[in-house]
Amino acid sequence: MTAEVRMTLNYILDSSCAKFGDLPAVGMAMEKALTYHEFHDRIFALAARMNREGVKKGDHVAILAENSHNWGIAYFAVIRLGAVAVPILPDFPEMDVHHILNEMKVKVLFITQRQIEKIFELKKILAGPIITLDDYAGVEGVVEVRRFSEYMEGAVAYMQEQKQSVSFPDVAEGDLASILYTSGTSGYSKAVLLTHKNLTSNAFAASTLAEINPGDVFLSILPMSHTYEFTCGFILPLLKGCRIAYAGQTPTPAILQKLCQHEKPFAIFAVPLVFEKIYKKRVLPKIEKSWAISLLCKTGFGRRFVYKRIGAKLLEFFGGNLQLMGIGGAALNPEVENFLFEAKFPYLIGYGLTESAPLLSGGPLGDATITTGSAGKPIPGVEVKIVDPDPINGIGEIVVRGPNVMRGYFNDVEKTKETIKEDGWLLTGDIGFLDERGNLHIRGRSKNVIVMANGENVYPEGIEHKMNAYHWVVEALIVENNDKLEAWVYPDYEFIDEQTADQPRTRRHEYLAELMETMRSEINGQLPKTSRISKVCERREPFIKTATHKIKRYLYDEHAKVA
C-alpha cells in the first residue's frame, strides 16, 4: 500500500477489520454490537447497492439523523464509493436543512423519523432514494421512504450474487470525504470541505494523546455530524480497535448514569455544559448544605480532600472505569476545571475548529506541565502561532497550519482566501496566547471582543465564566449597550422556586433581583473599572445555541444595539 492510500478513511476501516475483525465495533448502548467484520461487510454491501443505483465518485449523499451504528455504516458506504458525505446536524432547523439539501443536490438522503418533517416540502429536489436509518415507514402520500433494514437485505443479496466481482473506485487522501455545515456563533453558516487526509491525520494525531487499547469502550453522546465527535468519538476508536456504544439522543443525567453502569466506558467526549450541570447540581449542593464540608473547603488541603472524595463518587457515576473524559466544543468554566483538577478526575480539554477536522490542541493526558485554564499542547503535526501579540499580555490571533486544515469552503473562493493564507496558515478567528510551557490559552473569538469608547478591550467570555459559576445561573451573556456592559442572565427557576416556596410572587421577583444585584456587586469587585457591569437583566428563556452549546451571540448583540 502506498502512503497516499494509508491516509484515507477507507484504509483505516480495512486495516482495523484485518487486525480486530472479531472484536465488537459499533452498536447501540446496552445492545449487542456488530463486530469489525460485520460492520465492514455491511458497509461493502450498502456501497455496492448504491453504486448499482447510480451513486458515483464525487456525488453528494446527506445524512440527517441521530447517532447509531447505521449512521456509521451509511457514512463509510458513501466514502467507499469516493462520494462525499454531507452530515447534517440533527438540531438544524428546517430552513437550514432546506438550504443545505438545495445547495448539495444530494443523490441519496439517510434520515430518521425525528427529522422527517423537515423534508416534507422538498419532494421535487430529492430525486434519489430517502432511506430511514431507524426503519420509519414514512407518511403515505407525503414522502416515500425505504427502510434501512429492507434496503440492506437487498444490498446483502446483491453482494452475494456478485461474489468477488464488485469493485469500487480508487480513493486518494486528497479526495473529499465530507462537506460539513458549521453551526457557528456569527450567523454565517459555512460549508467546510474536509478531505480524507484532513480527517485521518487528525485521528492519528489524537490517538497519541492517551493510551487506548483494543476493546476499550467509548460511549458516544454528542452528534456524529459534528467533527469533534466524528474524529475523536468515531474514527479514533475504530482506528484503535475499540467498541463504540451509542446513547442515541442526548441522555438525561439519570439515563447517562444507567448507560454508564452497564457499559462502564473507558472514554466519553462531552461539551462543558455536561460538567457544569453536574458541578452545580451535584457538587456545590453537597458543599453548601453541610457546614462541616464548607468549613473544610476554606483551606487548600481540606478542599482537595473533599474534592477527591466527590471525584471518586463521580467516577462511580460514570461506571467506575472512566480513564478519559474529553471536554471541548466550547470553553469550560475555570471554577469547574479547578474542581476536576483537584478531584484528580481524568479529563482532557481540547481546542479545535470544524475547519481543522477539528483538533488543534489538547493534552496529552497525564502531562504535568499542562496548565489549568489552557487547552493543552498543540497536537502532533500541527503548528500554532500567535499573530500581532499584545506586548503586555501576549494575546493575539491564533493561526494554525497542518495536514488537518480544510481544503476550503464550498463555492466560496473569496472566504477561503480570507481564511487560509497562501503559505497554508489558517486564521482561526480566536484570540489567545502560548505560555512558557507551550500550552495554548484561548481568550475568545476576536469578533466577540468589545472595544469600549476609551479604547479598552473587554473579553466577555471571561466575565461570563464568573457569572456562570453562580449555582442559580443557568447561562449568561455580556453585551455592550451605549458604551456600557450589560449582563443577561437566564436563571435556574427551579432553584428560585425552592427558595421562595409558599411566598407571594412579588417576593419571588424581589429575591431574584437581590441575587442579581449581589452577583453584579461581587463580580465588579473582581474586575477593572473598564470591564464592570452596569446592570443585570433577567432573561426568561434559554439563549439560542450552536450544536456544542455556544450562545449565538450575533442574535443578541444586535438586539442590544437597538434596545
At CATH level 2, the architecture of the domain at 3-200 is 3-Layer(aba) Sandwich
Shape: globular
What is the CA–CA distance across the termini?
63 Å
User: Which fold name is given in CATH as the topology of the domain at 3-200?
Assistant: Rossmann fold
What proportion strand? 15-25%
What percent of residues adopt helix (DSSP H or I)? Answer: 25-40%
**Oligomeric state of the chains present here:** single chain
The tally of helices reads 18
Number of strands: 25
Notes on the protein architecture:
The chain has 563 residues and is α/β, with parallel strands linked by helices. Among the domains are: 198 residues, Rossmann fold (3-Layer(aba) Sandwich); 74 residues, Roll (Luciferase, domain 3); 114 residues, GMP Synthetase, Chain A, domain 3, CATH 3.30.300. The chain has 18 helices and 25 strands. The chain has an eight-stranded mixed sheet with strand order 2-1-11-10-12-13-14-15. Strand 10, helix 8 and strand 11 form a beta-alpha-beta unit. Helix 3 packs across helix 6 and helix 7 packs across helix 8. It is globular.
Which secondary structure elements does this structure contain, and how are they paired or packed?
Blueprint: H1 3-6, H2 9-20, E1 24-28, E2 34-35, H3 36-52, E3 60-64, H4 69-80, E4 84-87, H5 94-104, E5 108-111, E6 130-132, E7 146-147, H6 148-162, E8 176-181, E9 191-195, H7 196-206, E10 217-220, H8 227-239, E11 243-246, H9 253-263, E12 267-270, H10 272-288, H11 291-296, H12 300-317, E13 324-327, H13 334-342, E14 347-352, E15 359-362, E16 383-387, E17 396-401, E18 408-409, H14 413-419, E19 426-434, E20 440-445, E21 450-451, E22 457-458, H15 460-468, E23 473-481, E24 484-491, H16 493-499, H17 505-524, E25 533-538, H18 554-562
Parallel strand pairs: 1-11, 3-4, 3-5, 5-6, 6-7, 10-11, 10-12, 12-13, 13-14, 24-25
Antiparallel strand pairs: 1-2, 8-9, 9-18, 14-15, 16-17, 17-19, 19-20, 21-22, 23-24
Helix pairs in contact: 3-4, 3-6, 7-8
